[in-house]
Amino acid sequence: MHQVTYTFVDADHVKADWVLNQAGKSDNTHSFELATQNIRQH
Predict the structure, then answer these.
(1) DSSP H or E run through 31
(2) Is the separation of the CB atoms in 3 and 16 below 8 Å?
(3) Domain boundaries along the sequence of the chain
(4) What are phi and psi of 39, to 5 degrees?
(5) What is the 3-state secondary structure (H, E, C) of the chain?
């Protein structure tokens, strides 16, 4: 993985776009969407 761009969508969501390189050129992009999870405590 060569490069990442983080986008803060809102207070609970983040998007990460990773760029993969092959032979010095951009080859592929993978995106991940992350969210917080509310956990109820007893």
Answers:
(1) strand 25-35
(2) no
(3) 3-35
(4) -110, 125
(5) CCEEEEEEEECCEEEEEEEEEECCEEEEEEEEEEECCCCCCC
Residues 6 or more apart whose CB falls under 8 angstroms from that of 2 comprise: 19, 20, 21, 26
Query: Phi then psi for 23, rounded to 5 degrees?
Result: 55, 40
What's this model's pTM, rounded to 2 decimal places? 0.70
Strand partners, 38: none
pLDDT in tens, the chain (42 residues): 689 999 999 999 999 999 998 888 888 999 999 999 888 776
